[in-house]
Amino acid sequence: MNLAHIGIAVKSLDASAAVFEKIFDTKASEKEFVEEQKVNVRKIHLDNCDIELLEGTDPESPISKFIEKKGEGIHHVSFGVNDIQGSLDRIKNYGIKLINETPGTGADDMLVAFLHPKSTGGVLMEFTEHK
Ligand code: ZN
Predict the structure, then answer these.
(1) In the CATH scheme, what is the code of domain 2-129?
(2) Which among 23, 25, 60, 66 has most CB atoms closer than 10 A?
């Protein structure tokens, strides 16, 4: 398991990407729309993990709701796994609450599933696996 990315909710994707490009002295990825989450995503690729900038495209997007409640900030931390369904089943057996019991599709056509922050110290955690 590895740290895959840190998801940051932002109001303006392009404005934030421009700032992060300066901080990390690199170019952000092209904008990608993720239908399932109603978000636009741009990533900053670092050596050992990515920064995932997230902008809601709809008031019903989880990112839009997050910003409305808490403002901009860290939205989730994502961990790469080799067998996402196996990992979800394994931790579910311990009584750990999941938001997604089966994975959906996230940015870069990756399989993604969220754990419930009630079980993880208030931190929204995500598992992700390359298809
Ligand atoms: Zn993510």
Answers:
(1) 3.10.180.10
(2) 66
